[in-house]
Every structure is written in C-alpha cells, then in structure tokens.
Amino acid sequence: MKDSLDRSAWVAAGLTTLAAKGLDAVRVERLAADLNVTKGSFYWHFRDRADLLAMMVEAWRTSATTDIINRVEARAQEPADRLKALFSTVLRADGRLEMAMRDWAARDAAVAAAVAEADDRRVAYVEALFAGVGVPEAEAGARARFAYQALIGHFRMGVGAAEERAREALDLILPLMSRP
Fold first, then answer.
1. DSSP output for 29-80
2. Contact 13, 53 (CB under 8 A)
C-alpha cells in the first residue's frame, strides 16, 4: 500500500524535529504521529531509521549550502553584492538546524565529515567572493574563515533579539572586510 507522502515529507519532518528537539527525538513513531500516518508508511519509503538519517544529511547539505549559493548567485552579479546577499540571507536563517547538525556531528563521524565538507565549501565560496572584490588571496581566506566562524557563533549564541544587532554589525563590518 502506497501512501500520499513521499520520502521528502519524511525527511522534512525529520529535519524539523532535529532542529526543534535534537537527534534523539527523530524516531519513526514520533514522525509518523506528526505526519498523521502509520509506521508502515515510513517503511514504504525507507529501509530503516539509518536510511532516513542519511537522507536528512543529504537534504541539509543541499538546502543549507548548495541552494543558498545558487540563490545568491542568481540574485547578484558583482562579488560585493553577492557578499551582502549571502550574509543577509544567512543572518535571516533560523540557525537551529545548523546547530543541531553540529551537535549530531559531535556524536557521529559520518555526519562530522558531511559538516566539515559543507564548512569547507562554504568558506571556499566566501573566500572567492572576497577575492572577487580584490582582497589578496591569503587575506581572503582568513577573512572568509573569520566571517564564517562569526556566523556559526551567531547561531550558537541564538538569534531572535540579537538579530537586529547582528544586521547592524554586518552593515558596519562587511564594507571593512571586503576592502582590498
């Protein structure tokens, strides 16, 4: 019996639960209840929980890295505009899923490798944007790492009330960081 849900609905529910309640809450029974379906629906789409978790990592990697880069690239032509668009986009992000992925990575070597790969790709993208505005190569890498680490720190500290202050700081710091 096939239900009306597809794999992506289960993956999205898993990621939502991961962000809100942590990895231990990502359980077949809980997700089935949240989706208002039976556990049998889950097993129609996945071999087991590990299969779901692997799909969640891939979905996160795509949505939190590839899709953001693609949106920034489509939104702005000049590297300086792309930097601003990128930081504007990521500062508006919730951040809870990013932190949940990092917490999960601390417990699972395969997830740690996926997070490290995402980190490397993100930093390389920011480095290329800094280089594109004329920042020397060695400095572009250092600035990219610093900016990325600041963003992760922003997420770790929590957003909400601090979001407006982060945007104000971005308006002040980004022009300084992107100067050659």
1. HHHHHHHTS-HHHHHHH-SSHHHHHHHHHHHHHIIIIIHHHHHHHHH-SSHH
2. no
Rounded to 5, what percent of the chain is helix, strand, coil? 80, 0, 20
Q: DSSP of 117-148, one letter per residue? A: HHHHHHHHHHHHHHHHTT--HHHHHHHHHHHH
Taking the C-alpha atoms of residue 98 and residue 108, their distance in angstroms, rounded to an integer, is: 15
d(CA 117, CA 147): 17
- pLDDT tens per residue across all 180 residues of the chain: 445 789 999 999 999 999 999 999 999 999 999 999 989 889 999 999 999 999 999 999 999 999 999 999 999 999 989 998 998 888 878 889 999 999 999 999 999 999 999 999 999 999 999 999 999 998 999 999 998 998 898 888 875 545 666 666 666 666 666 666
> pTM of the predicted model, to two decimals?
0.87
How far apart CA 123 and CA 142 sit, in angstroms, is 10
